Amino acid sequence: xxxxxxxxxxxxxxxxxxxxxxxxxxxxxxxxxxxxxxxxxxxxxxxxxxxxxxxxxxxxxxxxxxxxxxxxxxxxxxxxxxxxxxxxxxxxxxxxxxxxxxxxxxxxxx
Length: 110
Known about the structure:
Elements: H1 7-16, E1 21-22, H2 23-33, H3 42-54, E2 58-64, E3 70-76, H4 78-102
Antiparallel strand pairs: 1-3, 2-3
């Protein structure tokens, strides 16, 4: 499924609210929480992580993963939490607007 521009950033921030994760863990969590509908490619994820880090919404630190390998773990910053609240509100408004436009198809009932 293709993502709207900016949606990946919001999904990453939402995923990190549960706690720090490495890139693969973020991808896996998004895939799991979307019932496998969203499969984030690493070619999209890592530039998004870098972008979010440059904005100060996430921070990273090298740590040892559950498989005893060095991995960069990302965590949400206070600025990222604030941004997530704003994005969540905008997303709810967007979904509501699209739902109004799409409505039921002619001849269908709710």
